[in-house]
From TrEMBL:
GO cellular component: cytosol
Keyword flag rRNA-binding: no
The protein's name: adenosylhomocysteine nucleosidase
InterPro entries per record: MTA_SAH_Nsdase, Nucleoside_phosphorylase_d, Nucleoside_phosphorylase_sf
PANTHER family membership: 5'-METHYLTHIOADENOSINE/S-ADENOSYLHOMOCYSTEINE NUCLEOSIDASE (PTHR46832), 5'-METHYLTHIOADENOSINE_S-ADENOSYLHOMOCYSTEINE NUCLEOSIDASE (PTHR46832:SF1)
Gene3D superfamilies tied to this protein: Nucleoside phosphorylase domain (3.40.50.1580)
Organism name: Duganella vulcania
Pathway: Amino-acid biosynthesis; L-methionine biosynthesis via salvage pathway; S-methyl-5-thio-alpha-D-ribose 1-phosphate from S-methyl-5'-thioadenosine (hydrolase route): step 1/2
EC number(s) from the headed UniProt entry: 3.2.2.9
UniProt xrefs under NCBIfam families: MTA_SAH-Nsdase, PRK05584.1
Pfam families: PNP_UDP_1
Keyword annotations of the record: Amino-acid biosynthesis, Glycosidase, Hydrolase, Methionine biosynthesis
Residue ranges of domain Nucleoside phosphorylase in the record: 2-223
């Protein structure tokens, strides 16, 4: 097993790179890939930067150039449900690209030629991440939606919730990694700590959260996940 660990921003992966034993670094396509042993696990950590294209590119390179066999995306997200609070963790069971709409050629959200609008995460990885996260905070499992938009208006999140009633969280990368991993046959999981409520306060809450607690959560969960 070689585990690829992706986050969009440095704050979301803080401490993991420092925890890598015998690290080696390689810059490719404007990203720095750091490999090594992470609590006995062969791992490669990388920051994708923000958005679906950035995440898809990073996931593809991890598989094709670094030979990772499994991928975990760890980061923050906006809440997509009233029961999902700031500081809770959402572990994805399915991911949707909420801004994908090729209708009337294909149903809204469906990714042409895959026949799918939702990509399922790997059950074993998801179980283990959820178990590791449950020792840190409250954990929810279900659907996460990704799009190339920061959701920072109440009307935006309400419209998304109306279109996707089982939505738990919104972010900007997970579903892109999901499509790449589906197409390449690589098991993957997505874990997100809620930083904001994707409403009019989202930008301020996001900035505060990312500067304070975001990294601590991710570090604790990934450490437990690797050790167990
Ligand atoms: N990541 C964290 N908060 C988010 C939001 N409100 N919209 C999109 N991505 C996010």
């Amino acid at each position: 097993m070689r585990l690829g660990i992706i986050s969009a921003l440095a704050e979301e992966q803080h401490g993991l790179i420092e925890a890598l034993e015998s690290p080696y670094k390689l810059v490719h396509g404007m990203r720095e890939y750091t490999g090594g042993k992470l609590w006995e696990i062969d791992a490669v950590c990388v920051l994708s930067r923000i958005g679906k294209v950035a995440a898809a590119m990073t996931a593809s390179i991890l598989v094709e150039k670094f030979g990772v066999t499994h991928i975990v995306f760890t980061g923050v997200a906006g809440s997509g449900d009233k029961n999902v609070k700031v500081g809770d963790i959402v572990v994805a069971e399915e991911l949707v690209q909420h801004d994908f709409d090729a209708s009337p050629l294909f149903p809204q959200f469906e990714i042409p030629l895959t026949g799918l609008s939702r990509f399922a995460t790997d059950t074993a990885l998801t179980e283990r991440l959820a178990a590791a996260a449950a020792q840190t905070t409250r954990v929810h499992r279900g659907m996460i939606a990704s799009g190339d938009q920061f959701i920072g208006k109440l009307a935006q999140i309400q419209a998304l919730k109306a279109a996707l009633p089982d939505l738990l969280a919104v972010e900007m990368e997970g579903a892109a990694v999901a499509q790449v991993c589906f197409e390449l046959g690589v098991p993957f999981a997505v874990i997100r700590t809620i930083s904001d409520n994707a409403n009019d306060d989202a930008a301020v809450d996001f900035m505060h959260f990312i500067k304070t607690v975001a990294s601590r959560y991710a570090f604790d969960v990934i450490e437990r996940f690797c050790k167990e």
